[in-house]
Amino acid sequence: MWLPTVFLIVLVGTQQTLADRVLVLGETSAIKETHSVFLNSVKERGHDLTIRAADDSQLALFKHGQLIFDHLFVLAPGVQVFGGSLSPAEISKFVDAGGNVLVAAGSNIGDALRELAVEHGFEFDEFGTSVVDHFNYDVKLDGGDHTTIVVKDNQLINSELIVGNSAKLNPVLFKGVGLSAGKLNNLALKIVKADGTAYSHDPKASPVKNPSLAGSRTLLVGGLQARNNARIVFSGSVDLFSDAFFAAQVNPSNPIVKAKGVVSGNAEFAASISKWVMKESGVLRVNSVNHHKKGETVPPAEDYFITDDVVYTINIEELKNGKWVPFQGKDVQLEFVRIDPFVRQTMKNINGRQTAAFKIPDVLGVYKFLVDYRRVGYTHVYDVQQVSVRPLWHTQYERFIRSAYPYYASSFSMMFGLVLFSIVYLYHKDTPVKGAKVLESEKKKN
Amino acid sequence: MKLLAILAVVGLGLGFASAQEAAIKNFRAGILTKDQQPTAENLKTLPLFSKLPSDLSADALQRLYVTFDVNEKAGGAVAKPQQVFLRFEAENGDDAVFTLNADRQGSYVHDSVLRTASKLFHNVVGKFKLHLIVADAALKNPVNWYFGNIVLDRLSHEELLPKSKQVHYEPLKEITHVFRQPEKRPSAVISDLFTVICLLPLLILFALWFKIGINFEEAPLSLWVPIFHFGLLGIFGLYFFFWIQFDMFETLRYLAFLGFFTFLAGNRVLRSLAGNKLKSD
Question: Where are the domains of chain A?
Fold first, then answer.
């Protein structure tokens, strides 16, 4: 009886830790052939791939309210309506539940993907448009429209976690539709932006009157990390992930790009971006948090007092190659907040153990030790520890101040004087003095 | 792969078939005030690929005026390339792009009040590089000409995001709490001097008593006398301990005891003193 249960637990356990379940949607199942290198590389990293056509009537992301996939790759630009229970709203729900999504579009973009992008704060340009760059196209691969674009490393976002080492990356080929980040999308990451000379337009149309997208505001690849740390990437080009572009040699028209006749950097780029989307890179977690008075090891039993010296420690770990290792970042900041931060300090990192030491402000109240670490490419680390800070007991203030000695002296000399005076006043007897003075006074009286 | 190769061949074929070269002529640029007409004086003429000698500078009410003609190099026919853009590039790499439209003679005019144009800048201010981009898939010589700089003053009000919507990816400025400084205290010499001054009245009292000569002749011979005076001393001693270590409740407990006896003794002492006086009178 127990053996099957253990087996089941082990099975479930391994499924959750090792193999992430990925649903890959292509326009047809031919995606298996045209994008085989990319899909195989994901499979080789130990994930379960389920490849379906985007209009398959059996598609679902949830079963009994539970996610049945961890990640969703939509490599189907032209899809108008998703099959099964899938819809842009459903995918949005998937993201809310923590699922990660990679979307690759193209110039034949359908309504489904445009709607999906809008749901997540991005906008793809219209059907039939392409990103055109007359200064940065590939001389050999391009069909004369200058839409096969060669992406230089300075167009990539400055984050090794997302795009890999951009300095070592060969030029990346791109052919597809332009993307723009919504004005209110504060979380948007411009993963790959177009060069300043690019614009998004129908390459066959008459002169551009009013391009919706032009210059480096045009995004080729955009992404965001939602507030629940779910990751979404929109690529304007599905060809970017294709076998043809992975194997292609780059012959840029722009003489500035030195790399000529080399194999494109698409494979490396696709690998690092898929690792980022699938949360294989740039994932942080808080292991333990501790705060205490200087010289102690545990938090005080009751409250902190004002002007106490306090030590705060947080252990942060990073997921690297499937293992949790100490996080080496040196820019984690601690805030001591009472509505507004009173103290903000960059912590010292000793092999993942981040510490900060400071003196508690001389203002009482309820405070928070707050670590709010948000960096491009990393998951958001947010940790709050609430403590109260109380004023000193009346006995904890300084006593016997030198400059108050005159007050002490006068009070006690007064008391002592009173004791003596009471004795003298009560028991002193005036001895009558014989002589003129008394007589005179008696005379006056009379 | 095969498809791509075919595409490439077709593309190259197309390119050769319609390849032409464009010439940009009569390029003039300048800043105009609100109602000013463009004339030869207030516009600068520039040959292709040269740069304005000095930076243009403008505020929100002025206009940027740029005009030029695009013709085919061979034959001089009117060329209508797909991309004729005026691009402002800010120092941080952000940019804003304006499209230009040709009239029938193939001449282009850009004339915009910078305030209305400023909406495109997303509140970026400062120095911008000006680029003229003329390109087309069929053009052999696409032109991306950096022809000068323009310095723009603050064009529009910055819209501040509420704190809850701000997203910071960079480390923030460190904050160190500034503690309230303790008040300045007098030096030890001064406070000691004043301690002595405060003790002086007691000494003066002793001196004067010594001078006039005191006696205790009226003291009644009674046990109540020492009890009363030690009680009084004890009350003040209790005061001292209240200052040093006791709390109020302890002090009151002792005071009730001490006070009762001192009161009783004081009463007795005064009564006997009054009795003595009556007798002597």
Answer: 2-277, 284-394
